[in-house]
Amino acid sequence: MKGRSLREKLTPRRKDILSFISEFLEEKGYPPSVREIGEAVGFASASSVHAHLSVLARDGYI
């Protein structure tokens, strides 16, 4: 996507995940667990969280 920042390419759910991780790190000094991320964004399945984390990692966000 020419002329767009990486942040603009994120889906709303991935933005939520990334924001939660950033805020959690800022507050506690260590990253949240997969379960904590899932609870924060409304996922019942850890595999859903893993799928989103994989994309965020692949794209260089985490």
List the helices and strands and how they pair.
Elements: H1 6-9, H2 12-28, H3 34-41, H4 46-58
CA radius of gyration is 12 Å
End-to-end Cα distance, whole Å, is 20 Å
Largest sheet: none
Strand content: under 5%
CATH architecture field? Orthogonal Bundle
Write the H/E string, N to C: HHHH
Helix fraction, binned, reads: 55-70%
CATH top level label: Mainly Alpha
CATH superfamily grouping: Winged helix-like DNA-binding domain superfamily/Winged helix DNA-binding domain
Number of distinct helices: 4
Class per helix and strand makeup = mainly alpha
Write down how many β-strands occur, each being a DSSP E stretch of 2 or more residues: 0
Indicate the mean pLDDT. Answer: 90
By CATH, the topology is Arc Repressor Mutant, subunit A
How many independent structural domains? 1
The dominant shape is globular
Low-confidence blocks of residues: none
Description:
- This protein has 62 residues and is mainly alpha-helical.
- It has one domain (10-58): Winged helix-like DNA-binding domain superfamily/Winged helix DNA-binding domain (Arc Repressor Mutant, subunit A, Orthogonal Bundle).
- Helix content is 68%, strand content 0%.
- It has four helices and no strands.
- The chain has helices at residues 6-9, 12-28, 34-41, 46-58.
- Helix 3 (34-41) crosses helix 4.
- The mean pLDDT is 90.
